[in-house]
Amino acid sequence: MHFRSQHVIFAALVVSLVTLAYAINFEYLSDCEITDFGDRIKFAHGDTLWGDVHSNSQIAIMGDPQFYGRVFICGSTMPACSTCFHGEVILNADSVRFPVIATELRLCAARQWSFYDEPGKAYRMYLRGDSALICRWPQGKPFDSTDSWTIAVSRGHCVFFDGSLELLGHMTGEISIGCSKNIFLLDNVLYDDADPLTGVVPSNSGNYLMLVAEHDIKIANTPANGRWNSGGRGLNQPNQDSTAIVITAALNALGQSFTFDQQNDADSGWVYMDPPGTPHSDDRGNIYLYGSVAQKRRGYVHRGTGGSTGYLNHYHWDFRFSHWTPPGALSYDAPRFHSTDTLDFGNVIVGQTRTDTAHIYPGTGSTLGSVLVNTPFYATRVPPYYASEFHIPVRFTPTHATPYSAILYISTTYQYYQIVVKGRGMPGGAPPLVFDVSPNPFNLTTTLRYTLSQSSVVKLTVFDVLGRTARQMDLAVQEPGEHSVRLDASDLASGVYFVHLQAQGQSLTKKVLLLK
């Protein structure tokens, strides 16, 4: 049974609900996989995604893209590929509601006097370590750095621009940057301690960046980002400064897409000719993203225009995001799995064994390391040993009639878990109370099952996370044997509840999750 005392429950749940709200729970999140032109964009050969993926639409694939985390699909069709998915694929998943505008970020920036809204202006921001240079000039005119100023990149900083924003550079600190129109990435945007070629971030890094555009986030067609078919050499260009873009950030395109600019067709205003007058491929290299991307509509990052144009994807989720609340964070309504923090085995007769399972969700592909706990608790390291989630069987076999507690230590590639395990050994003459809730999680109704070893008055109480009584059932005296009670929660709000059973002078509590 998973249990926490009430004061710890509330504090932890507040953190959990806050974490639930952000798209950074997923490496890739989309509301729709179809463009405004009616094209369903496919994940293709060469695309690699290491973290969890969620789409409110039906994911399509071509070739053998590689997914190493869990894949949540709101549709009912399993993509046809036997070698693409290395984690669990969940069909008919709950949808995630996207915010329309960055309300929280706008307010955060306004409170910090960092909301820039002069009409008719365009903006460019150079990230320079622990500071940033901001330039402002008239929209539709050539770039001009005359009107400029410097701000500090301090922890918890929010900046918002009412207009379009051009962005590039490297940074140290924690900042959320947003704009009401498009963000154009002119070159790499990465942390000072990130790998400059792949964007890989050290596990102990304290640097964080969130980017929010209320329309598109676009990779600009610049020489640094692979313009002119990667400087004329296509994907054979050895100089990464001319054939790739490296991004370390949580990207959020609320109105449209994460995409690339000037897609080598007449409609985009750019057609690459080589030789002059002859349309040519414009392969600009690779996108190395270490962070996350959320977009209203799936955006092109590669097209067949000119033969082949755009980028290959190399997306890696930043596992640190599972513990990060960005300044001015956005309110997505996103499902989330939480690792077990406590296992309570309740009362167990001396010499008998009760089992439970510790659930671990690293959030990205990881290797399961050591699993250690002191007796009389026993934990087993079981396959799969590489996954985005692990389920560890744990046994409790008391040797004396006394309370027991210990710490279950579990290590994975990127994270280390300490789970409290506890139980009480009972004399053989006092059979323990048996209690279960199934299904759990549940929608509207579930069944409470319990077994009595002697006649007893039975009382069932449902508490919310604040300890308030949501339902109470006094069932009077019941005979020994198995019993079941149907719990109708149709009038309760979605969330976590605790079902408390009292009988035979004993009590047990089960944590349940109501999903509507």
Helix and strand layout, with pairings?
Elements: H1 6-20, E1 28-32, E2 42-44, E3 48-49, E4 53-55, E5 60-62, E6 66-67, E7 71-73, E8 89-90, H2 103-111, E9 115-116, E10 121-129, E11 131-138, E12 147-152, E13 157-161, E14 165-171, E15 174-179, E16 183-191, E17 208-213, E18 217-219, H3 227-232, E19 244-247, E20 250-253, E21 258-260, E22 282-297, E23 302-303, E24 309-317, E25 342-349, E26 354-360, E27 366-372, E28 377-379, E29 386-387, E30 390-396, E31 403-412, E32 416-426, E33 434-438, E34 445-452, E35 456-464, E36 469-478, E37 481-488, E38 495-503, E39 506-514
Parallel strand pairs: 1-4, 1-22, 2-5, 3-6, 3-24, 4-7, 7-8, 9-13, 10-14, 13-15, 14-16, 15-17, 16-18, 17-20, 18-21, 19-22, 20-22, 22-24, 25-32
Antiparallel strand pairs: 10-11, 11-12, 23-24, 26-30, 27-29, 27-31, 28-30, 31-32, 33-34, 34-37, 35-36, 35-38, 38-39
Describe the fold and architecture.
The protein has 3 helices and 39 strands. The radius of gyration is 27 Å and the shape is elongated. The longest helix is centred in the first third of the chain and has 15 residues, at 6-20. With 516 residues, the chain is mainly beta. It has 3 domains: 101-323, no CATH class; 339-430, Immunoglobulin-like (Sandwich), CATH 2.60.40.10; 433-516, Immunoglobulin-like (Sandwich). The chain has a 15-stranded mixed β-sheet that branches. The chain has a 7-stranded mixed β-sheet with strand order 12-11-10-14-16-18-21, with no helix packed on it.
